[in-house]
Amino acid sequence: MQTNNDIQEAITIENLSHDGRGIARIEGKTVFIANTVPGDIISLRITKQQDKYDEAELINIETPSADRVEPFCALYNQCGGCQLQHVSIDAQRHFKAENFITRLTQAVNSKNCKISPPLIGNDKNYRRRARFGLSISKKDKIARLGFREKASNELIDIEQCPILTPGLNQALAEQRPLLLEQASRAYKEITFVEADNGVFVTNSTSDEPSSLEPCYKTEGLNIHFLADGFIQVNSLQNEQMINQAMNWLELESKHKVLDLFCGVGNFTLPIAKKVKSITGIEGLADLVATASSNARTNEIDNADFFKADLFDECHKLPWFRTQKYHRVLLDPGRQGAFEISKVLHLLKAEIIVYVSCNAATLIRDIQELEKQGYQLYKAGLVDMFPHTTHTEVMVQLKKAKPPKKKKSNIFRF
């Protein structure tokens, strides 16, 4: 690794990388520069030189881009929670979608793929769940409740966050004094989540079992979930995402559907109202129990839930081996669904809809599904996490129909 201390001027930022850094090209070589916006003209200093690319630090913005905006949070330059507040929200969505679609279409067969407009919503006060760190700093002995600083393990104290819902900010203000009194040098995580029935605060270090039952409403259903468990953080985008997934599944009343990585039934139960039956598979027993309870609470009798390790062989299990499914929905975590993708063709489902928070593992899994005869037909961005580099994406794949055999004329006269 080499560095170059010379300052280079009049460098134009051309694009935005998937991790939010600006991209420039100097003498044909790609250079990544943090805190820049496509359209900026800047001066920079190279800090790291690699064979195929360089990294640089921003020295000065000579001419700002039309897409550059003033961050709305006073702590933006210190807090590691957001990475893109200096980019206009429209530009964020454009570059996120462009980055995803470019990576996708370069890696898989996209000749039949229709690109859907991004699903968008509020870009402030949208986050209904947050995990805060709580500790006394070893450096200055001050207790802090907040998020990690940029490029650091140190905490930055957070009194209010413009990304959080008003309900979470109110709860944070009320809980801060008591929580700071409980701080020690041992790092703790405190989860705040706003449900339709209140704000719930859980301490990951507590040994006491929780009896809390937060819930939210979607598609006319009450969905209970674990207070310290997973929930889609953006309620409006979750609603839009569920509706788009159901549309892309092209559901009919006769269909049997398989929902893999189903959680507490976020997709499963709304789908159940439209089809003959649905089976939800999840790896954690607590989530399976909660999903089953949600089905009973909502008087849904055509949804069954089973526990299975979807990163292990599943094709011999009864819910897989003895069933036929017309549609499959996948909604895995960041690690994707590679193992189960390798055997999905055995189910002979006509349509697969895949929801992902990691485009890289999604693309890998689509490449595996292509080997089994599936083709990409739809793709789009869900702007679930405005002002961050994180994205949620959705694709639709359909089983390719075998080509019709041409009749031979060999014995015809």
Structure description:
- The chain is of the alpha/beta class and 413 residues long.
- 22% of the residues lie in helices and 30% in strands.
- The chain contains eight helices and 21 strands.
- The chain has helices at 89-107, 166-181, 235-249, 268-272, 285-297, 318-321, 338-341, 359-371; strands spanning 7-12, 15-16, 22-26, 29-33, 41-49, 53-63, 114-115, 129-136, 143-148, 155-157, 188-195, 198-203, 215-218, 221-224, 256-260, 277-282, 303-307, 327-330, 351-356, 374-382, 392-399.
- The protein has an eight-stranded mixed sheet with strand order 7-20-21-19-18-15-16-17, sandwiched between helices. A six-stranded mixed sheet has the order 1-5-6-4-3-2.
- The longest helix is centred in the N-terminal third of the chain and has 19 residues, at 89-107.
- The radius of gyration is 24 Å and the shape is globular.
Which sheet architecture does the biggest sheet show? 8 strands, mixed
| Number of separate strands | 21
- For this structure, the quaternary state is single chain
> If you average the pLDDT, what whole number results?
93
Radius of gyration: 24 Å
State the distance separating the first and last CA atoms. Answer: 75 Å
SSE sequence, one letter per element: EEEEEEHEEEEHEEEEHEHEHEHEHEHEE
Structural class label: alpha/beta
- The fraction of residues in strands falls at 25-35%
Shape: globular
What share of residues is helical?
Answer: 10-25%
**How many helical stretches?**
8
Low-confidence stretches: none
Widest sheet, order of strands: 7-20-21-19-18-15-16-17
